[in-house]
C-alpha cells in the first residue's frame, strides 16, 4: 500500500491511493510560515514513525520520495469539504484559518523582500531624484522672488546653491554693493527675513541631498561594487531601479540593459516605425555621451555587455572584476572611436 502525504493550513494529512484518510496531525504552535519550506517538519517526522511503508510527500524534501502533485494533495484540493468533515473541522473555521495563513505568508514575503539591501539603494536614488527636482523648482521660485529686489544677480550667479547662499549672507543688495544702481524695488526688513528664511530652507535641502548621495555611495559599493566601478554609484543605482532590483538586472540580456530608460522611444519605433533607440539611461555615462554619434550605438552595445556581466557577478558571486571589465570596455571604446565616419554609400570620410 502506498501512502501519500500533503501539507494543509490545518496540518499534515496521510492518505492512501483511494483517498482514505489514514492519519491527520494538526500543526502545533506557530507553524504557519513553515508550510512552504523544503524541509521535514516535526509533524511529518511523527507521521513517518506511525507507518512502516514508504511515504510519498508532495514537497521536494531531500532524502525522501516525492511527487508534485501527489494523490493526497489532489484528493484534498478536489473535495475539501469531505475531508474537513472527517477530521471534524467546520468550513467557516477552515476559511478563517486559510485567510490567516495567506496574510501571514504575504507579510513574511514582504519582510523578506524589504530586507534586501538593493531595495534601500533603489529608494535612495529615487529620493535623490525627487530632491533634485524639488530643489530646481524651489530655486527657480527663489530667483523669481529675489529678482524683484535685485534682478542683476541672476546673470552673475548661475549655480542655484551659491545664489541661495548669497541671499542668506547678504539679504538686501545694499549689504553687498552700495554703489551699484539696480532696477529692482526696495524691500522691508520683514520681506528680507522672509527671503533669507526661504533661501536657508533650500540650503538645508542641499545638505540633505549631499547626505543621501554619501549614503548611496556607501550602500551601492557594498551591494554592487562591479556595477559602481563601471558607471558610478548614481547611474548604477538608476539601472537597478529601472530593472526592479539587482537580481532582475542580472537576469536581463545585454540588449535589454542597453535600452533601459528608453521604453517610450522603443514603443514609438514599434508602433509608428520611428527610428529605433540606440541607448537608454546608460547615455549618461561620459564615455558614451562624448563619443562620435556614428559609433554611439556600438559603444552602447559594448557597455551593456560588460554591465550584464558585472550585474551577474554582483548578484551571484560577489567577486570583484570591475577593473578588468572597465579596461576591456575602454579598449573597445578607443578602437571604435578610431573608426572613420561612413556615409550611406559605404564611403569613409
Concise summary:
The chain is mostly helical and 349 residues long. The protein is built from 16 helices and 4 strands.
Description of the structure:
This protein is mainly α and 349 residues long. It has 3 domains: 3-114, Nucleotidyltransferase, domain 5, CATH 3.30.420; 117-219, Helix Hairpins (Orthogonal Bundle); 224-337, Orthogonal Bundle (Serum Albumin, Chain A, Domain 1). 60% of the residues lie in helices and 6% in strands. The chain has a 4-stranded mixed sheet, with helices on both faces. Helix 7 packs antiparallel against helix 8 and helix 8 packs across helix 10.
Secondary structure layout:
Blueprint: E1 3-7, E2 11-16, E3 21-26, H1 42-50, E4 55-57, H2 71-78, H3 80-87, H4 91-114, H5 117-146, H6 153-156, H7 160-170, H8 189-223, H9 225-231, H10 233-243, H11 246-251, H12 254-258, H13 263-272, H14 286-289, H15 296-316, H16 322-337
Parallel strand pairs: 1-4
Antiparallel strand pairs: 1-2, 2-3
Helix pairs in contact: 5-7, 5-8, 5-10, 7-8, 8-9, 8-10, 9-10, 9-15, 9-16, 15-16
Amino acid at each position: 500500500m502506498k501512502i501519500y502525504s500533503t501539507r494543509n493550513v490545518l496540518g499534515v494529512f496521510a492518505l492512501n491511493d483511494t483517498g482514505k484518510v489514514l492519519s491527520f496531525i494538526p500543526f502545533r504552535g506557530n507553524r504557519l510560515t513553515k508550510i512552504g519550506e523544503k524541509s521535514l517538519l516535526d509533524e511529518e517526522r511523527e507521521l513517518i514513525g506511525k507507518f512502516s511503508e514508504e511515504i510519498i510527500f508532495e514537497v521536494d524534501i531531500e532524502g525522501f520520495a516525492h511527487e508534485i502533485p501527489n494523490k493526497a494533495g489532489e484528493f484534498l484540493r478536489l473535495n475539501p469539504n469531505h475531508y474537513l468533515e472527517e477530521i471534524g473541522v467546520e468550513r467557516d473555521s477552515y476559511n478563517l484559518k486559510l485567510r490567516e495563513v495567506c496574510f501571514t505568508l504575504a507579510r513574511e514575503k514582504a519582510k523578506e523582500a524589504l530586507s534586501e539591501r538593493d531595495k534601500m539603494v533603489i529608494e535612495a536614488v529615487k529620493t535623490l531624484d525627487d530632491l533634485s527636482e524639488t530643489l530646481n523648482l524651489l530655486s527657480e521660485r527663489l530667483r523669481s522672488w529675489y529678482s524683484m529686489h535685485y534682478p542683476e544677480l541672476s546673470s552673475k550667479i548661475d549655480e542655484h546653491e551659491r545664489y541661495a547662499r548669497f541671499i542668506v549672507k547678504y539679504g538686501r543688495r545694499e549689504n553687498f554693493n552700495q554703489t551699484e544702481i539696480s532696477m529692482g524695488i526696495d524691500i522691508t526688513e520683514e520681506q528680507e527675513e522672509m527671503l533669507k528664511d526661504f533661501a536657508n530652507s533650500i540650503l538645508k535641502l542641499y545638505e540633505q541631498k549631499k547626505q543621501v548621495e554619501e549614503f548611496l555611495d556607501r550602500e551601492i559599493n557594498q551591494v554592487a561594487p562591479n556595477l559602481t566601478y563601471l558607471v558610478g554609484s548614481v547611474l548604477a543605482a538608476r539601472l537597478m531601479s529601472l530593472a526592479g532590483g539587482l537580481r532582475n538586472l542580472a537576469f536581463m540580456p545585454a540588449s535589454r540593459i542597453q535600452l533601459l530608460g528608453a521604453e517610450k522611444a522603443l514603443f514609438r519605433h514599434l508602433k509608428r516605425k520611428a527610428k529605433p533607440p540606440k541607448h537608454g539611461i546608460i547615455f549618461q555615462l561620459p564615455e558614451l555621451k562624448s563619443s562620435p554619434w556614428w559609433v554611439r550605438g556600438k559603444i552602447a552595445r559594448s557597455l551593456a555587455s560588460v554591465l550584464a556581466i558585472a550585474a551577474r557577478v554582483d548578484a551571484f558571486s560577489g567577486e570583484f572584476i570591475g577593473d578588468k571589465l572597465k579596461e576591456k570596455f575602454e579598449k573597445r571604446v578607443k578602437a571604435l572611436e578610431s573608426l572613420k565616419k561612413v556615409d550611406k554609400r559605404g564611403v569613409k570620410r
